[in-house]
Amino acid sequence: MSRKQLLARPSLAVLVILALLAAFVPHHHPEATPNSMQTGDIAWMLFSTALVLLMTPGLAFFYGGMVNRGSIISTMLQSFISLGVISLLWYVVGFSLAFGNDIGGVIGDPRTFFMFDNVGTAPHPRLGMGLPLVLFAAFQLKFAIITPALISGGFAERIRFWGYLIFICLFSIFIYCPLAHWAWHPDGFLAKWGVLDFAGVRLCIFRLVSRRWPVRWPLAAAARTSTATRIRRLIFRSLSWARACCGLAGLASMRAPH
Predict the structure, then answer these.
(1) C-alpha distances out from residue 9 to 16, 169, 192, Å
(2) Helical packing angle, 201-210 and 133-151, nearest 10°
């Protein structure tokens, strides 16, 4: 039996177990009362969520255009696979670890929103006030998705695909979720210090760390990219990143006292 088969069978078993839990374990999804939320806030956050989601495939094409021709598909797939794997982790336990009931200002209680229990259209009294909690969870999910995809540029063409899957799972649970709790949960210790992270501080830290292992992009691949393509990529990423920051600024303004 090959190594791929040994890894694929446990992965399939985990997916089947999670599917059965989602199908048969009872969950409570509170519904919002009529006229309890601002439609403008919801529309703005839906728009921001959609554009942040587009950043991940945009990043895949960006990284795919900077590697050797034989590695384009695998490099792009590292970004796209994050959409599925991190979404599943976020649904099961990631959202709870990041935004569940506070445990010492460091991490959230994994039982709070396990399998998206108690996540519905009703707003949460402390998380994204005035927004459906499921929309708040979806917006935060997009950042959890793109963060490991961004890091994949630090080891492009130098990691096995199964190793990358294991890495993004461990990174999401043990690195991203605690950091999100510190900065974005009202009881996180950084939030109590008055820190407002508009989707940039932690990513800059990750970028500085990745410089320990610099990326050696082939000059030939860079030469194949036209100036017009580079300009389009720059505009696309700048607009998406600005929308992400605006969405987080909107959440911060909702949380601030008036």
Answers:
(1) 11, 17, 44
(2) 20
Provide the greatest CA pair distance for the chain: 63
Is the Cβ–Cβ distance between 244 and 55 less than 8 Å? yes
Tell me the C-alpha distance between 199 and 204, whole Å.
9
The domain limits of the chain are 37-255
pLDDT tens digits for range 39-83: 888 898 899 899 889 888 988 888 888 888 888 888 899 889 999
- How far, in Å, are 12, 67, 170, 221 from residue 77 at the CA level? 19, 13, 18, 18
Q: What are phi and psi of 103, to 5 degrees?
A: -125, 95
Report pTM: 0.76
pLDDT of residue 37: 78
Q: Tell me the CATH number for domain 37-255.
A: 1.10.3430.10
Which letter does DSSP use for residue 70 in this model?
G
**Where is average pLDDT lowest: 16-20, 22-26, 142-146, 189-193?**
22-26
- Pairing mode, if any, of strands 102-103 and 107-108? antiparallel
Half-sphere exposure of 138 (CA within 13 A, CB side): 16
